[in-house]
């Protein structure tokens, strides 16, 4: 039996004050129904109406005024530097989630895409940081279609 149940989400910037925190990877932040552990060791049953892509800074609403903050976990990433406009186009053309910053791009650690980007002149560095990529095209968020070669659990 879970300590808490959350059926709704509060978006980042739309709430203040939390009871606890759930630290989740990018893959784990895409869910509908799942039991999670909080930083303080409590169990949380998330039971949302629809599969939802959660962002760093969102919160699970426990329905009684308490909130549990969602925090992006550190995970293995590739840091991409070089001609960011050209490289971002190639990353987007492959429907690869990408965190876009002024001086670098971040993608999940994918050796195949990493090698392709190096051939295009990119400098590719393995790092470990929280991953907060841009939303999907036209604001629709993500779908399961990005799982066409491997799963994150194979690394």
Describe the structure in your own words:
With 155 residues, the protein is mostly beta strands. It folds into two domains: 4-72, HSP40/DNAj peptide-binding domain; 75-154, Alpha-Beta Plaits (2-Layer Sandwich), CATH 3.30.70.790. Helices cover 12% and strands 39% of the residues. The protein contains two helices and eleven strands, in the order ββββββββαββαβ. The protein has helices at residues 84-93, 111-119, and strands at 4-6, 8-10, 20-24, 30-37, 43-53, 59-61, 67-72, 74-81, 99-100, 105-108, 123-130. The strands form three sheets. It has a four-stranded mixed β-sheet with strand order 2-6-7-3, with no helix packed on it. The chain has a four-stranded antiparallel β-sheet with strand order 9-10-8-11.
Give the second-level CATH assignment, the architecture of the largest domain: 2-Layer Sandwich
Provide the β-strand percentage band: 35-45%
Return the domain count.
2
What is the assembly state of the chains in this entry?
single chain
How do the strands and helices of this protein lay out in sequence?
Blueprint: E1 4-6, E2 8-10, E3 20-24, E4 30-37, E5 43-53, E6 59-61, E7 67-72, E8 74-81, H1 84-93, E9 99-100, E10 105-108, H2 111-119, E11 123-130
Parallel strand pairs: 1-5, 3-7
Antiparallel strand pairs: 2-6, 4-5, 6-7, 8-10, 8-11, 9-10
């Amino acid at each position: 039996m879970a300590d808490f149940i959350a059926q709704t989400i509060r978006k980042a910037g739309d709430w203040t004050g939390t009871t606890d925190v759930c630290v989740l990877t990018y893959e784990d932040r895409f869910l509908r129904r799942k039991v999670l552990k909080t930083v303080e060791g409590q169990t949380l049953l998330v039971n949302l109406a629809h599969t939802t892509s959660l962002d760093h800074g969102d919160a699970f609403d426990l329905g009684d005024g308490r909130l549990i903050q969602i925090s992006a976990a550190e995970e293995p990433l590739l840091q991409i530097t070089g001609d960011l406009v050209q490289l971002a186009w190639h990353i987007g053309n492959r429907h690869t989630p990408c965190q876009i910053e002024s001086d670098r791009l971040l993608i999940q650690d994918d050796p195949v895409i990493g090698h392709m980007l190096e051939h295009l002149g990119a400098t590719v560095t393995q790092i470990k940081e929280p991953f907060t990529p841009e939303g999907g095209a036209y604001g629709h968020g993500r779908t399961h279609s990005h799982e066409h070669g491997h799963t994150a659990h194979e690394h």
